[in-house]
Amino acid sequence: MRRIISILLLVIVAFGISLSLSKIPFGVPKTKVGKHYISEGVKETGATNVVTSVVVSYRGFDTLGEITVLFIASIGLGAVLSSIGKKTARKIEPASLILSTGCKVLFPLILIFGSYIFIHGHLTPGGGFQGGAIIASAYLLIYLGCRERRINAKVSMSIESLGGLLFVVVGLIGLAISGYFLANFLPKGTPNLLFSAGVIPIIYIAIGFKVGSELTGIIDNLIEES
Amino acid sequence: MIFIVSFLVLLMLVAAIAASVFRDLINAVIATALVSLIASVLFYFLQAPDVAMAEAAIGAALTTAIFIIAIRRTKRYEE
Q: pTM for the complete prediction?
């Protein structure tokens, strides 16, 4: 009986979703503001990656909210896990030679790739969130391959806080100079160059460090407890 | 092109169903990771490389790792 009811509910939900999705035209511009971002985005922000110009410049305040949510999630996880209490350190079985050597070779390459993604966020696809996640996956590899290695939790916490602080401070300097929060107060330069788009690369580097250390901290917390 | 995309969508559906059917939770997590991986490829085909990157890094790598750590702490088989 319960199964029939759940299947019926699922069918109703699927019907509702497909009904509302069929009303939305696919691939057609639906708002005027989207057209403005595409045609004027490069001129107004100096970032050739339109997604970055929206995420960091036009909707920069929302991004601040997003990284705050991530920060709260990471803190909450840490609080919940620390209330359970640390287990006594077991003897860690070392990984095989092939795995640990492979991790040591791959780790710096993944780290460089992640940094490239968030430093070039205003030029090529990618940005702070993506680069940070890639850096966290590099640390995950280290946790799997070289099991006795641990990151310094204090250092990662301070990097996280400094990243968030840099974001807010850049926003406040924009407020002081140009009159609104996260204003682009630096010269925009020529598009397509690394040093262009004003404060966008600075903010994305801050986000990259913050997201990378946060996700690494989450993984570190979970692995410590298991 | 359309064949590749439809093949990927079918594979994604199969993986999603498999994830809910498997009794061994490690297998189910791997199937979920496969769903994320195919989703990221499809995002790339839909010209959203930014989303594809986030999906590949977070959905396929980090979430899988967190699930596997959680399974190691609890039970591996669903009864």
A: 0.83
Structural domain of B6: 2-73
Give the Cα-Cα-Cα angle B69, B53, A197 (nearest 5 degrees): 130
Q: What is the pLDDT of residues B1-12, one digit of tens each?
A: 889 999 999 999
Tell me the C-alpha distance between A192 and A226, whole Å: 46
Structure tokens at A112: 């460089």
Instruction: Look at A51 and B65 and tell me if their CB atoms are within 8 Å.
Output: no
Are B73 and A226 in contact (CB < 8 Å)?
Answer: yes
Q: What are the pLDDT digits (tens) for A60-77?
A: 889 889 889 988 988 888
CB A136 within 8 A of CB A212: yes
Domain presence at residue B78: no
**Total structural domains in chain B?**
1
Determine whether the interchain pair B53/A117 forms a contact, defined as Cβ–Cβ distance below 8 Å: yes
